[in-house]
Fold this protein.
Amino acid sequence: MRISLEEAAARLSRGEVVAIPTETVYGLAADAGNDEALQKIFTTKQRPADHPLIVHISDIDQVSDWAAAFPDVAVNLAKAFWPGALTLVLPAKNHVSRVVRGNEPTIALRVPNHPVALALLKLSGLSVAAPSANLFTQLSPTTAEHVEAGLGDAIPVLDGGACTVGIESTIVSVAADGQWQLLRPGMISEIGRAHV
Ligand code: AMP
Ligand code: MG
């Protein structure tokens, strides 16, 4: 079922899940501040509950809503690559739900580089958790048609065209002391070192 931007924002605000385009892959989105909504991601994807979710924010200023520390190396990475296919894993603030962080002491954050995703974040005023919009262990979808083929017609899809990157984001964790680690390679890893 295809839905409009306005309908997607309304559904997210009501605690429902919506498949959304990003530049990496299509995500199955839910309000990152609503545990009941987040549970729907896990049940829809049949994803194990201890797998943490990446929270999509619209602006670097929102990092402080979620992260207890934002060391200089992480700030530099965010400034160099956001909006873009880089996820930063940072120490989480205490209030951040254990559901979204899969019981980890950290929170994963990304500003997606997709006009429809950014418009949705701004219109809804929400931050959204959005793992790939496919069943756990299946291939990640890069078009609205892929999402429908994998999850069925009952899942509302905001169609934003084909994903330009087509693979999951690079993930870098940065500890409070600035020590960093590449957790998942991706499109950005090759050029990353030159920029840090
Ligand atoms: P994705 O399946 O693309 O949504 O990415 C989720 C992956 O991001 C997880 O399987 C972890 O590897 C990583 N990740 C997300 N959140 C965290 C976190 N809080 N701490 C450590 N790794 C995380
Ligand atoms: Mg996936």
About this structure: The two ends are 42 Å apart (CA to CA). The chain has a mean pLDDT of 95. Residues 131-132, 140 surround magnesium ion (ligand 2) (CB under 6 Å). DSSP finds seven helices and eight strands in the chain.
